[in-house]
Specification:
The protein has twelve helices and twelve strands. It is an alpha/beta fold. The chain has one domain: Alpha-Beta Complex (Inosine-uridine Nucleoside N-ribohydrolase, Chain A), CATH 3.90.245.10. An eight-stranded mixed β-sheet has the order 3-2-1-4-5-6-12-9, sandwiched between helices. Bound molecules: alpha-D-ribofuranose and calcium ion (CA). Calcium ion binds next to helix 1. The site of calcium ion (CA) has 8 residues, from helix 1.
Length: 315
C-alpha cells in the first residue's frame, strides 16, 4: 500500500474517486483534506465525511482547509448541485477543522516520501508550500487531476476547472521543485460512463447511493457541458496510480495563466521542440476499457480477485 493524502472537493466524481481509492486497498490513506471548489468548504467537508461513513472508513481523518482561492473569489461548479452532492444532499455535520495545511505538513514530516493526490483546486497545497517549502520538498510526488493541454477547457475556452478556480495556487505548485504528474482533460474526456455501467453495482452497499448520485450528475453534465455521461475526472486520477501500465504519459514544460480574464487558468504547454526543462509529467491517454472494467470490479469489492486489465497499446 502506498501512503497518500487525498486533497479533494467532493463533488460526484471526487466521491467515486474516494470509493475507488478505499476499495482498491492500494493506498494507506493518511488523511482526506478538503478544499472549496465544486462547492463551499462546508459542503465539500460534509460530503467527504458522508462518503467515508458510507465506506465504513470513518477511521480516515478529515481535515478541512481553504474556503476560497489564494487571491480570487470562489467560483463553484454547477454540475454538482447546491449541496455539492446532488442526489444525496448529505445532512451530516461538516465539522470543519480549518487545519488541512498544518496537517498536510505534519503528516509529510512523519511520512516522508508520501504521495499527495489532488482532486480539486490546489489552494491547500500551495499554502503548505508557502508555509513550509522544505517539508513539502520531501513529498514523493504530487498527482493532480487538472489542466487541458491540447483540448479546450471545461470552465472557459482554455482552462480546466481545478486550475481555473485557483490559478495562483496552481502557479505555485507547477513551479515547485517536486515530482508532479497531472491527469488533464486530454486523458479524461473520452472516458464516459452511463447509468448502465453503474447498474453493475447492483447487490452491493454502494449501488443505491451511487445511482442516486449519478442520475443528477449525468443530467447536469449533459445540460452544462453537452455530454450526457458521467465524466470520470477524479477516479481516473486514482486509477493512474493503481494501473499506470495502461496510461501513456510524457513530460512537458507548463506555465499557468494567472493574469488574463480571457485565458485564466490555462495550462500553457511549450509545444515547440525547444525546451529541455520539464516541470510536469502529463498523462495523455488512459485505456478506457481497462478503467471501466477495473473501476466497477474494484467498487464491487473484487480487488483481490481483480486481475488488473493489461493492454498492449492504449486505445
Ligand atoms: O474539471 C474537473 C475537475 O473539477 C474535477 O476534479 C471535478 O470534481 C471538479 O473539481
Ligand atoms: Ca474534484
Amino acid at each position: 500500500m502506498i501512503p497518500v493524502i487525498i486533497d479533494t472537493d467532493p463533488g460526484h466524481d471526487d466521491a467515486l474517486a474516494i470509493m475507488l481509492a478505499v476499495k482498491s486497498n492500494f493506498f494507506d490513506i493518511k488523511a482526506i483534506t478538503t478544499v472549496a471548489g465544486n462547492s463551499t468548504i462546508e459542503n465539500t467537508t460534509r460530503n467527504a465525511r458522508y462518503i467515508l461513513k458510507l465506506l465504513d472508513r470513518e477511521d480516515i481523518p478529515v481535515y478541512s482547509g481553504a474556503l476560497k482561492p489564494l487571491k480570487q473569489e470562489l467560483i463553484q461548479a454547477v454540475v454538482h448541485g447546491k449541496s455539492g452532492l446532488e442526489g444525496i444532499d448529505p445532512k451530516n455535520e461538516a465539522l470543519l477543522t480549518n487545519n488541512a495545511v498544518e496537517k498536510i505538513i505534519s503528516i509529510i514530516k512523519s511520512n516522508p516520501d508520501i504521495t499527495i493526490i489532488t482532486l480539486g483546486p490546489l489552494t491547500n497545497i500551495a499554502q503548505a508550500i508557502l508555509q513550509d517549502p522544505e517539508t513539502m520538498k520531501k513529498v514523493k510526488q504530487i498527482v493532480s487531476m487538472g489542466g487541458a493541454i491540447k483540448v479546450p477547457g471545461n470552465k472557459n475556452r482554455v482552462a480546466e476547472f481545478n486550475i481555473f478556480v485557483d490559478p495562483d495556487a496552481a502557479d505555485i505548485v507547477f513551479n515547485f521543485p517536486v515530482k508532479k504528474t497531472i491527469i488533464p482533460l486530454d486523458a479524461c474526456n473520452n472516458v464516459q460512463l452511463q447509468i448502465e455501467d453503474f447498474e453493475k453495482l447492483k447487490g452491493t452497499d454502494l449501488y443505491e447511493p451511487v445511482i442516486k448520485m449519478m442520475k443528477p450528475y449525468i443530467k447536469n453534465i449533459g445540460e452544462n457541458e453537452g455530454v450526457f455521461a458521467a465524466l470520470m475526472y477524479d477516479p481516473l486520477t486514482i486509477y493512474y496510480l493503481i494501473n499506470t501500465k495502461v496510461c501513456v504519459s510524457k513530460e512537458y514544460d507548463i506555465k499557468i495563466e494567472t493574469k488574463s480574464d480571457l485565458t485564466r487558468g490555462m495550462t500553457v504547454a511549450e509545444l515547440r521542440n525547444i525546451t529541455k526543462k520539464f516541470n510536469v509529467r502529463v498523462v495523455e491517454k488512459i485505456d478506457k476499457e481497462s478503467f471501466k472494467k477495473d473501476f466497477i470490479q474494484i467498487l464491487k469489492g473484487n480487488m483481490f480477485s481483480t486481475k488488473l486489465s493489461q493492454t498492449a497499446g492504449v486505445k
